[in-house]
Predict the 3D structure of the following.
Amino acid sequence: MASRRAVLGVSAAALAGAAGAVAAVARGGDPAPAQPPATVPFHGRHQAGIATPKQRYAVFVAFDLVTRDVAVLRNLMRDWTEVADRVTRGQRPLPRGNAPAGAAVDSGDGDGLAPARLTMTFGFGPGVFDARFGLAARRPPALRDLPAFAGDELDPAYTGGDLVAQVCADDPQLASYAARQLRSRVMGIARLRWVQRGFQGYPADGGTPRNLFGQKDGTANPAPGTPEFADTVWVPDGADPAWMAGGTFLVLRRIRMSLATWDLTPLAEQDAILGRHRDTGAPLSGGSEFTAPDLDRTGPGGAPVIAADSHVRLARPFKMFRRGFNYDDGPQGDEPHAHPAGTEPHDHANHRHDYDAGLLLAVYVRDPGAQFVPAQEALARADRLTTFTTHVGSGVWAVPPGAEPGGYVGQALLG
Amino acid sequence: MASRRAVLGVSAAALAGAAGAVAAVARGGDPAPAQPPATVPFHGRHQAGIATPKQRYAVFVAFDLVTRDVAVLRNLMRDWTEVADRVTRGQRPLPRGNAPAGAAVDSGDGDGLAPARLTMTFGFGPGVFDARFGLAARRPPALRDLPAFAGDELDPAYTGGDLVAQVCADDPQLASYAARQLRSRVMGIARLRWVQRGFQGYPADGGTPRNLFGQKDGTANPAPGTPEFADTVWVPDGADPAWMAGGTFLVLRRIRMSLATWDLTPLAEQDAILGRHRDTGAPLSGGSEFTAPDLDRTGPGGAPVIAADSHVRLARPFKMFRRGFNYDDGPQGDEPHAHPAGTEPHDHANHRHDYDAGLLLAVYVRDPGAQFVPAQEALARADRLTTFTTHVGSGVWAVPPGAEPGGYVGQALLG
């Protein structure tokens, strides 16, 4: 019962897969995923799931704390750390402290599944630093609620949360199982706020994966392991507060895409709106996918080839690391419900049969206010692409550094 | 532009994968999936996606017809057949007849993805045979709306539909892409009714996959290719109506599982409720997973070892082929909405924060009324497992035989 699988550890195949992932990173863009089974080490200077090559499947889960006791929060982070350490290695978690007599250690739906590059990444929202836990003085200055952006239509069902867990794997059942083990530890401590699920398909040739607008997404990403990546993502030693050194910040935006409208837009228009050729990912100014866009190049008549309101031009000044996942949740909205006779006519702001698909844009940066906020302000103001998108969910979390064996995620904050 | 990938066709790896899948079938239970890339042939006596080893990911999509013209329905089935034939081979669909000038042939998010064992399977609901299309006389007698079962809490958002498409693949992005190409063909013809998405994780040892109660699911399934499978699933030659020969019927039930309650139930109770050991899948009467349950065996005190109200005992008399997928959609329910001042108090039957996870139970049988209905009646009446489940969606469709090259799915009905 202690082990989810008979054979654990990093296999030769996993090592080969990891080597392949590194090779793919070196080619630029997002790497193709390694073949499962592969184990991503949980411990380290940084939390896994950030520089880790994107897996095929992601579950983001947010919780609101109901406890007001920092010791309870500390125990929860210890507990989650133990769960993540064991489950990412293919082991069962240890028994829950509050389990009823005779209950199984876990739900069993993860039995026998290979680790599938599972990662579990934890973050603290602004609420952790409010009056409840005595941590206000240790709040990172960079952790602030995001401002309202033009066009935002945020739904509380996809916004905010005191705690977030990003659970990624190449096996959707393993991701579901792992998220469930986290939920099983919060009874009386925190309340589930929302769950969002995304996926990423990988071209067979190892090329940059695409979003639901058909665009290669992540071309401009810094490559994990490079100085540019570190400078973009990781909070450096000596930063304020010290407990965030080696950490980062997660901004998660749920960006609904108007797929039907987009699909009716001529391809040449789609390309002009992005500033790149959809098929190849090459900038309209020429070259191939990884050629730098030539923003000064003009076409017949003197107009810039990459338009002033194109996504590429507006987004280019801002450095961030995108680790997004597509989502396709189908028609959404109110469930049918009856009103007693005599109820007055009223507006449900009913979005039923809105088709909810798009991008769970997970952005990792060392300073959201300096990197994400000005980028999103520029895009919300002028990017033509935004006429096909609506931001319907949002959140920001401080993602503490990784845990070493014997420690836990958040230890430098919570002691 | 005509090809989604540079290299198509069945590779050596795909053939090896198919051989592996056959080997796994011979061991009983649901087979482990072949490694992608692999192409599942679309054409054949039967539609693909039924006897096909279950893929990792499924999207079920239902539509209601708005056309009343059988010729339009015929053209849609021709169009869908062409889409499925091409996309399952890694090719782009042909241009849409109603596409605006300059529009891309497809949405591009499938570019470069390997076929990932994609299958697309189509079915006709009872509505196809109502007064609209002149097909009432050709309605299969076995295609009837299911009766209401005890405990049903069916939500229209997951129930019914004139047409259904089951889209399965090992790559969730490819499944999303393929379903989108079907949607792109229905404008003015049909309206999207619902989308349901499921997944299946596969134990690394090739064992039977598990549902979200941690149980091996599919142990009693007949093995595809055997006479028992054919007798359970395929409508035989000479049946009434003749156009269904080689077809089958799909019953899809969305079974919400009370995961939190289940997880608090002692393991011994879970086993008693199922009639099997969760860990091994062996019946409580002894042996291993594929040992036939000994329903006559009694324990101390003379009580049957496999209880009278256990799932195994109640389900055993009924022959069906289960091709279910787990789902884990998170908290569900009404979106927040405001009422104008003066609105009277009223009940929204608000299920917000109900956690919606469970099983998309796809059952393939040659006669739902003789195979599925009595089974579900017996289970709904007495199975203790049903105290942990709620059926919240339902549908039944006639699944016509497969198409041969040059033909289309439903041709024997629609001419």
